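Model it.
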Amino acid sequence: MGTLQTIEPLASLAEMAGDYERAVGFHEEGLRMAENLGLWPEAADRLTGLGSTAMPTGDHERACEFHQRALRLPAEHSFKPGELHAEIGLGLGARREGRLDGAEAHMRHALEWQTAMFFEPGRALVLTELGFVAEQRGEADEALRLHLEGWESARNTGDVRALALALEGLAGAHSLAGRPQNAALLLGAAHAARTSVGMPLPSAVRGGVDRVTAAVRSHLDEDAYRTAHDRGGRLTSEQAVVAVQGQYGNFQPPAPPNTTVPHHQPPRHRQRHNQPLTCSNTSESHPDSTVPPMIEPRVVDGGGAQRP
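Modeled.
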């Protein structure tokens, strides 16, 4: 039992370092031990871990299979937290494959649960994922609202990596809204935050950041990008958010949509637009499943005028 308790932190450290092969080994060992001992909650968590480590390698089908197994197992044993972890995994995979409707449905259901449990780490992740969904749909104001809310939750946790992820999400929203200098500043602050804890993004999970960075660089020359990025690198997370808020006045985000989910619809049975939330739902898939498309931003100059 003592050995089993060390599996999760060891696997997490391996994932943070980008050593997914080693992480898989830990999760597989933990799954075997949990199944032999009849510890179904732990087995469900290890299945979710295997799904999470399959995603960065691009094996979305295998990731989804693990997450579906992780969803069924805790449901059979009435372990709601395990169901929630698996549903978040399914939502993460759906967004990375470009299935944005499915990703949103999973994440909104997870958000309801996380909010009811006052679990800020979970809210920070889910809100950021919903912000990325909005950005990839071209909904700049909604993306900004969600990312700001996610940043608030991340700030409440004190988790530097969660704050960095929220800043990267905000950078995408600002880029989409035509504020590439703000986006570059936020990317710089996010990079500095990750560096401060010795946890840079592994190359396998840099798709979102690289996508936003490429969009920003396409609208700034190298000097302008580097100046804004370096400035962000000297700011704390809060200072960076305050700095970009000052660029567009007292922004009042739109009211959040209703996230209520009927209690008679468990997460694995919920639907959106009459399409089941399963891995086989590929109607939204984009041919580039590793880096989903980014809507072309409109660029606004200092005076607020749009230019192509």
